Amino acid sequence: MSILEVLAIIVPSTLLTAAPLIFTALGGVFSERSGVVNIGLEGLMSVGAFTAAIATLFLEHAGFGNASPWIAILIAAVAGAIFSLIHAVVSITFRADQTVSGVALNFLAAGLTIFLVKLIYNGNGQTPYIAHNINKISVPVLSNIPIIGPIFFQQVTYTSYLAIFVSFVVWYIIFKTSFGLRLRSVGEHPAAADTLGINVTRMRYIGVMLSGFFGGIGGAVYLVTITANYNVSTIAGQGFLALAAMVFGKWHPIGAMGASLFFGFAQALSITSQQIPYIDRLPSVVMMVAPYVLTLIVLTGFVGRAEPPKADGIPYIKGQR
Amino acid sequence: MSKMLSKIQWMKLLVPIVSVVLGLLCGAIIMVAAGYNPLLAYGSIVQSIFLQPYYTGETIRAMIPLVLSGLAVAFAFRTGLFNIGVEGQLLVGWFASVAAAIVFEGLPKVILLPLCIIAGGAAGGIWGFLPGFLKARFKVHEVISTIMMNYIALYTTSYLIKNFLYTEGERTPTIPSAASLASPTLANLTQGSRLHWGFIVAILAAVAMWFILWKTTRGYELRAVGFSPDASKYAGMNVSRNIILSMTISGIFAGLSGAMEGLGTYQYMMINSTFTGIGFNGIAVALLGLNTPVGVILAGALFAGLQTGGLTMQSVAGVPVELIQIVIALIIFFVGSSYVIKWALLRFSMRGHKN
Amino acid sequence: MPYAIEMKHIRKEFPGIIANDDINLQVEEGEIHALFGENGAGKSTLMNVLFGLYQPDEGEIYVHGKKVRIADPNDANRLGIGMVHQHFMLVEKFTVAENIILGREPTIHGRLDMTKAVKIVSDLSEKYGLDVDPMKKVEDITVGMQQRVEILKTLYRGSDILIFDEPTAVLTPLEIKELIDIMKRLVKEGKSIILITHKLKEIFEACDRCTVIRRGKIIGTIGIGETNPSDLADMMVGRKVNVRINNAPYEPKEKVLEIRDLTVLDSRKVKAVNQLNLTVHGGEIMGIAGVDGNGQTELVEAIAGLRKVKEGAIEINGNDVTNHKTRKIIEAGLGYIPEDRQKHGLVLDFSIGENMVLQTYYKKPYAFAGVLNNKVISKKAKQLIHEYDVRTPGEKTLARSLSGGNQQKVIVAREVDRSPQLLVAAQPTRGLDIGAIEFIHGKLLEEKEKGKAVLLVSFELDEILHLSDRIAVIFEGRIIDIVNPKETNENELGLLMAGRKKEEAQA
């Protein structure tokens, strides 16, 4: 197998697995930049995936055809944002420990989605398969470019390009707009922001709900491009992987995207390694655990220190320093 | 003033009770909304675990790993650390205990059984030691590192089983009876439940936690570091060592929790594609039990009862068993929001005074 | 002409304490008005009410003669009220310009217009003579510049009434002089200023009028021309202050602490203590005078084994303890009253009893074979609570629920009771009321009389002058002179603290 052929297998697979991670990790960036730790990303993805499954099935039935999964992604985003409100209320307004709240959010999402699936499908623990996936396609024109075409523009889904594009949009929002400046100030020094008339609570609510919005998209994309139905093991660790990507990317949108691509690459390798010379001799487990081990290494600071926003995880109480 | 203080003390105990009541209430509302009968559902849970010996036995059986996981989380909490890695520590503990049992097959029970339990605890301890070390040495936040360790444990144990201890049914072979905690006596007593001697381990662990934390100088240090690492450092304590020690002990409890599943409940280990959930439930148990040994046992009993009874609920009232998970999640939310509950209780009791 | 600010009958209550009680305050247009009072008198609470961070329980506020309601800092900003906070409210990772425009950013279609922001900041800084570098990150600039950024934040918002909350605590004498010049310039430009302070000197140098506040109540407002420092001090405290003065004979004994050529790095790896030499004998109080940030913290931390010594040696009682573990140094005879009592001195969520044995819990009789003896610990705690007059329901009470003064008494009791040869006291009276200050001063003097060595670090010159047998002046990590308190004065010390050698100071 030539290098090109290997790349033509691995790169599209990387892009496919990375897209949900990118969206979700971007959500994490919003939340944590505003000062709210969100380990509930897993749960937000579950809600997104569940909503996408139900919505797609419904839309297909209503005759929306190929547009169904795309509309479903939007609906899932809204559902994720609404669901994340629980985390916002509990951890911002009620000042609960943000980690505790995140754990509970994951629990609730796992329980609630399957409960609802069983309720809707008469005790059956999984949804039917959706008929209209977002399919892998070859991008017209671009896919014909020699070398680059087969690697980057064949056998991919549009959602992957969208994810990468959105990363840059998020970067722009966080670092180039007044909204972003305020969001970051609330995550770094909420008391300072407060004295300048920035509503800390409101900004944090927005941060958390954006994480729900993007987490919902992440889960939905995972469903409409990869699994096509929702059951108890649909989202099994994707959210935590996205969390790792956010940390690995040092709480930076572009970093989170890069880390997601890298984790996608590791997953792609672990799935396709059997077809690839040399790598097939490595135990598959090496590729499976690589993202987590590497994140740990990054956190130790050997590869440049990863520092979270200063007020990340600390409830803001007026009049306390 | 002192009256106010005692009121706050009293309220601390009230928060978990209120949380459980609110959680169950919300569960009931969900059931009504979904068209189920909550009285029938909750009734079936109570009836099964109190009146049917099999379910009583299964409840106590389910308590064992829950209590140990709860102790693991609570112990770390007391030292100011949030161990989300119980799940992973449990898996490696489970694996190590089963592997030890199979590798050392043939040893007499007096040696093999303790050896396997120790192997489980030790593996969990190592899995806890690592995040502790990373925190002490590199200031890596334990929440993130233990989550990473969970996945490393999940994939590694699956890989090891698949490649070294595989037998039909996606699992390891059954352990020799010399390593087993299972007891025909207990099983007979409870009409064939999987209740095993592990409950003694759980009780001993709870006593150990209480003794270490509140009766020893080491525990004094651990608690001091938990409340205020800075003041502890200024008083001449070695903060890093205490962080590592705390995570290690916490990991040992979690590893034992896994060993109980391996040596007691299942007698083998399956290839897990996802987590057992016991470790995450341990967080709920610890929170609800206010991070005290007695509280953890009580909370463990409650959640074990709900989970075991949940199966009856599904068959009797037709309510999907996931409702239990929803209720547990809501209870965590409520306990976590104790600030608001306390505030509400204070308002409530003050109004009571005025009237 | 109406007052710039008029506050009428302000009352603000917190659980268990009335912070402001029927307060009336009038600030005239174009004046520098001092709000003068002890720590905890209620000055900051009153200003937080004015700035919209707290809501008063009762009372009215008038700004330029118009009755207003100030619900949050936004309202205050709109009314032209700006605050320069004691603990700077700056986002360290942001640039100077970003900090200044935050909350009121110049934008083009939602995009931050940083070019314009930098221009605005430069213009403002030029207009008011406040030198800052707009592109630098706040974490990389000096404390003095950070304060100028705080001032610019208020000016950028068009404030014409500026509140300065204890602005000089972190400044060098020279910077203080500059700040006072800046304030006077601001007043000339038509601003009105409220200066919160507990330092008499500043009031007489900068202010036009002064309102004295004590225990949440207004004592009176007085023109600076009509009063003198000692009268004002009496007004603040409400009685003749019983200043404890070190008048026990100075009879130094053997060396207890010896520091040779000590170099210590601070957290940013800059030499904070630089080739420092110092000897403290038994039976003396050695005062360390200096402006905050000249290496005091690092010096003390190095002595206690909390910070690594880069070069040099520290000896206690003739034993080399350089870079030893804190516990070993404590066992070698160190007692330590740390600067931040809540963070470093106490485990706030431990009971008083548990706090009393924070360094000795593992020793007999408090423990045996690794098991605590809680009965003995309780007994000891009860005894110390009684001896040191700690006001508390009992030894089981959490340290968190004690007042600042009583918390400090717990620390002093614990440290002194261990009878260490060397007692290091860093800012032992900061933020305490007069009663507690007198108590602590008395204890330090007692230790001296017992023949112990006391190293006193303080930013309060009065405290240093009254208590010390010798005064070592620290500047940029070195002891630049050691003076006899009886032969010096605040002026000379001030100059030394600014880094001028004695010869220059006298010239």
Structure overview:
The complex is a heterotrimer of chains A (321), B (355) and C (507). By secondary structure, chain A is mainly alpha-helical. In chain A, 68% of the residues lie in helices and 0% in strands. In chain A, helix 2 runs antiparallel to helix 3 and helix 6 crosses helix 7. The longest helix of chain A is centred in the N-terminal third of the chain and has 31 residues. Chain A is globular. The relative contact order of chain A is 0.21. Chain B is mainly alpha-helical and 355 residues long. Chain B contains 15 helices and no strands. The mean pLDDT of chain B is 91. In chain C, the strands form six sheets. Chain C has a six-stranded mixed β-sheet, with helices on both faces. In chain C, strands 18-21-22-15-23-24 form a six-stranded mixed β-sheet, with helices on both faces. In chain C, strand 11 and strand 12 form a beta hairpin. The longest helix of chain C is centred in the middle third of the chain and has 16 residues. Chains A and B meet through helix 3, helix 4, helix 10 and helix 12 of A and helix 5, helix 6, helix 12, helix 14 and helix 15 of B. Chain A: It is a multi-pass membrane protein. Chain A: GO terms for molecular function: transmembrane transporter activity. Chain A: It is found in: Cell membrane.
CATH domain class name of the largest domain in chain C: Alpha Beta
Mean of residue pLDDT values of chain C: 89
Radius of gyration of chain A, taken over Cα atoms and rounded to an integer in Å: 20 Å
User: How would you sum up the global shape of chain A?
Assistant: globular
| β-sheet strand percentage of chain A | under 5%
Number of strands of chain C: 24
- The name CATH uses for the topology of the largest domain in chain C is Rossmann fold
Poorly predicted spans of chain C: none
Q: Which oligomeric state applies?
A: heterotrimer
Assign the structural class of chain C, choosing from mainly alpha, mainly beta, alpha/beta, alpha+beta, or little secondary structure.
Answer: alpha/beta
Membrane topology (chain C): Peripheral membrane protein
GO molecular function (chain C): ATP binding; ATP hydrolysis activity
Family (chain C): Belongs to the ABC transporter superfamily.
InterPro entries (chain C): AAA+_ATPase, ABC_carbohydrate_import_ATPase, ABC_transporter-like_ATP-bd, ABC_transporter-like_CS, P-loop_NTPase
